Amino acid sequence: MKLNGSVCLPISKSESNRVLMIAAYGGFSLETENGELSEAHDTVLLKALLKQTSLRTTPNVSGHSAEEIVVDCEDAGTASRFLMTYLACLPGTWVLKGTSRMQQRPMAPLIETLRQLGADIKCLDAEGKLPVKIKGTRILGGRVEIDASKSSQFVSSLLLAAPTWEKGLRLRLKEGAVSLPYVDMTVSTMRHFGAVVERHDSEIVVLPGAYQSKKYMVSADWSAASYWYEMAALSEDCDLMLEGLKLDPLQGDSEVVELYQSFGVQTSCEPRGVHLTKTTVPLPEKPLELDFSMKPDLFPAVFVTCVALHCPAVFRGIQNLALKESDRASVLITELSKIYSFKYTINHNEIIIDSSILVNQNNFHNRIVFRTFDDHRVAMALSGLSLVLGSVIIDRPEVVSKSYPTFWDEMSNIL
């Protein structure tokens, strides 16, 4: 199938979430250069919850809100982790909760580090998990270390608050920290708003000082671009413009450009955005060696691409995929096995796939339903198979609203 036309990418929810938190800590209204923030559900929810907390902080004589206020983060991992620190500093008594899936996702390293800094946090069910009761208090900051092997969001949560603390923060990352490009995004965004932050390998120092109100240009989302790169790789021919997208060193997922050269996808930067074309390339003689420890959101698109193109590959740095909205590696193997026969081995940190075979294409593709397991990235990655099969059926397609609400509209415009 040929792929041509242009698509609009969503504004980066990662950047949007960070500037929302900075504006909340700085106590100013946020202005963006293009007047936009992400319309992803996660960002819309975070904005609403910040507004909710700002309207419910009237203290009583003891300095705390007179009532216990429930803050429901639903299935938003970033919001839950960013708000954990925010509420720990905010006068009041708060119950932070989420969906059943969010209650399974890790929070313990952030909770433990905040407690070391003086936060009053009580786990209401399982220790180290949501829901929690938080009594907001004055946090002074200081020197602590944190285990960021499960999520870099723990680190960003602390850093965003640190300029407001009297002693600032000297934070040491324990060995095995993942997704560090997102930490660097946090540091760069904080600096834009006047924070003094330095990162030296595994140590980050934040000096105390107020954030300054400034306009900010939120970029288009490179994580969302990965699904169009996947479709470009699976197409017979491609002439696709990703409107508004620019090479952005803040977003580590821009590494998708280099990754997809192995599949014949060529990238050129133009005034309108990023232009994708397709050339025919032979499969690599040896399995591709791929490490996703610093770019986990690219895994779904790349994994589906390799299976669909019968490309052997070794996927490393996948140990935390089970902690996302779904157990992404297992889910994709299960769903792809409905139409592909492929050999694989999987362990805690690695998947190895041999070449795959598409089986019974004509009989299957009109009646096989791909389950999404309520995971937006699984839904978008599996949709790319329409370039191979002609059409696919996706269960609960609305889950894409978490990060890319217009995805299906954009897809229908170019296919």
Description:
The chain has 415 residues and is an alpha/beta fold. The protein folds into two domains: 13-206, UDP-n-acetylglucosamine1-carboxyvinyl-transferase, Chain, CATH 3.65.10; 221-414, Alpha-beta prism (UDP-n-acetylglucosamine1-carboxyvinyl-transferase, Chain), CATH 3.65.10.10. Helix content is 32%, strand content 22%. The chain is built from 14 helices and 18 strands. It has helices at 13-26, 41-54, 77-88, 108-116, 153-161, 180-192, 222-234, 256-259, 299-308, 328-336, 361-364, 376-383, 386-389, 407-414; strands at 2-8, 68-72, 93-97, 120-123, 132-135, 142-146, 169-173, 197-200, 203-206, 237-243, 265-270, 273-278, 288-291, 313-316, 340-346, 350-358, 369-370, 393-394. Strands 1-10-12-11 form a four-stranded mixed β-sheet. A four-stranded mixed β-sheet has the order 2-3-5-4, covered by helices on one side. A hairpin with a 2-residue loop joins β8 (197-200) and β9 (203-206). α1 packs across α6. The longest helix has 14 residues, at 13-26. The radius of gyration is 22 Å and the shape is globular.
